Amino acid sequence: MSEAAAAHPGVEPAESPLTPDSWGKLGMWNFLAGDAMSFGGLIVGYGILRYSSSSWPPPSEVLGINLTALMTLLLIISSVTMVLALAAVQSGDKARFKKFMAFTILGGALFLGCQAYEWTHLIHETLPHHKISFSSHLFATTFFVLTGFHGLHVTGGVIYNTVVLTLVSKGRWGANHVEIAGLYWHFVDLVWILIFTFVYLL
Length: 202
Fold this sequence. Notes:
It is a single chain. The chain is mostly helical. The chain is built from seven helices and no strands. It has one domain: Cytochrome c oxidase, subunit III, four-helix bundle (Four Helix Bundle (Hemerythrin (Met), subunit A)), CATH 1.20.120.
């Protein structure tokens, strides 16, 4: 018996508000806070370099806005399916969970496929046409660093979500793990909307 319980017999000791589930969420929030600073630094650095340059090409003349709008739509839809997957697993409907989680993973994979196509097209056709190279022009350097860093996060998210789908389907993980994965995925989607706005549209 603890000293507090001994001093106050008949009074149940207060339980710690932190549980393994809440520790997981706290850990993810801490990770996302640090990651937000990384993305924030990259976006601010991009803005400073862009607006201090006198030779920055208009993004609409170099980048494929239509393709990137489709990529943005894919991530937004995948965020919706992630919410539906969480709701399904919380209600005990594993069949619906599997379906919506699979759609979330598919959305991320399609996004990466579109990004690979975009990069290939830029490197081999568009950038040479505009006489822009990765090593000699900050437009290309900042573009590939920002979108590449985000692409790594999407890749990690697709792998993470696949692991969550597998382990929840086997009954080894539960709704809390899906919720934590959802925090990461929604963050990745939000960051892309910021990149799409600042790099492609403005």
